[in-house]
Amino acid sequence: MSFDLVLFGGTGDLAWRKLMPALFQAFRHGTLPEGGRIIGVARDDMSDEQYRNWIQSRFDGVELAKRPNPDEFARFASMLCYLRMDLSKQADYQRLADNLRARDAASVVMYVATAPSLFTTVCEQIAAVGLNDPRTRIVLEKPLGHDLASNQAINDTLRRVLNEDQVFRIDHYLGKPSVQNLFALRFGNALFEPLWRREHIANIQITMAEDLGVETRGAFYDQTGALRDMVQNHALQLLCAIGMEPPINSSANAVRDEKLKVLQSLKPWTAESLGQHVVRGQYTAGTTHCQTVPGYLEEKGIPAGSQTETFVALRTEISNWRWAGVPFYIRTGKRLAGRDARIVVNFRPVPHPIFKTPVGAVNQLVINLQPKDGLELHLLAQGAAQRQAEPTLAPVHLNLDFDQRFGAERVGAYERLLLDVIAGRLNLFVRSDEQEQAWRWVEPILEHWRNDTQGPRPYTAGSWGPSAASAMIARDGYCWSEEA
Length: 484
Description:
Elements: E1 3-8, H1 13-28, E2 36-42, H2 48-58, H3 70-77, E3 80-84, H4 90-103, E4 107-112, H5 119-128, E5 136-140, H6 148-161, E6 167-169, H7 177-187, E7 201-209, H8 218-222, H9 225-243, H10 252-265, H11 271-276, E8 278-284, E9 286-288, E10 291-293, E11 311-317, E12 327-333, E13 340-347, E14 364-370, E15 374-381, E16 394-401, H12 402-406, H13 413-423, H14 432-450, E17 457-460, H15 467-474
Parallel strand pairs: 1-2, 1-4, 2-3, 4-5, 5-6, 7-12, 8-17
Antiparallel strand pairs: 7-13, 8-11, 9-10, 11-12, 13-14, 14-15, 15-16
Helix pairs in contact: 1-13, 5-6, 6-14, 9-10, 9-14, 10-14
């Protein structure tokens, strides 16, 4: 199947750090359709050959196993070309339209890897030159708006010029193999689904921890913060995957209908719950990996006295028959004690214990997302050497490491998502009503913070965040599950 992939922002960080390496891996694996063309679009003045050389030089920063050898890159580079464009000028879009119509590929993918402020401009201009025909697909990166109103404005523009099935709102977490296995775990196996409910589960924790600071993204991050950057999209999508009902089939709308129901069922915020069940923090100077690191306010591009949060912890519930009364805890932050993304399902204790058990030992399912990828099932067992009159059970666990099991067969998140866009598969992309409902749920938190004079709570870089986050979960009698 022939395709044209137009990469707006073709010389930006996202293009050379994530998208080009993902497209090359698909090419190397033989899954990128033949007859394809990748068009980098930017304001820089360069030829096709100069663009190819520029991309090749950037591959030096890719991990060694994913770098092309000269022969591989030469074959991949034959798909690359470049078009200089000023995204504010309609004449440049007309040149793009003429270029695309001359080839008449079966599908045209427009990947808008630009500043969010340009999203509506690009979409309107594409429509103005007639490039919004049925073969066109638009890919939009987060953040899609700064709040509900700006998100709705972008979606209203998209509805005027495109059909919903032409819009691919990308969330790279949904392309991770570990998240794919979350769906497989729930809906492809009979083992856990009967237990996946309030009668058997005590609480569920979602942790998305980073040990890095804002690095070179300070100016952007200060306008965004952890709530918009991680919770409104990635964390809520994971919560949906955990909490959704089984869809009637695997079609895109069947899956997205069930995710929307979860978002609509999230317990509404009240003044009391906003005060007790939401914690925001900001890192101060500390030590990470035996190195002294600056605090957020000392990072490049951060204005003095910034109130932007680098950490969020919150407690919520899904108010429906399956999950009523089960707390869901979400925690995400920068400059934490480790890089660790995981979902922890804590099961209820047996109703009538007849064995001694260690304090705090529970049955637990851990779904590791990064840097590990796999499942851990924590159980209790009696060791053969025990001779006590009243034996004590000891924790044991089964560890399923998907990287060891599948190895090189694993497909990266952006590779999977880009192939899905080219093929027109919408299952792993976010629908407009999902996105708007997620914004609708986080808006009261943003409003509460605007009126809160206390500001974010400080936490030392290299720790697990403010003590208030531990106090929040402790009020329910639980504690955060952390990598030993």
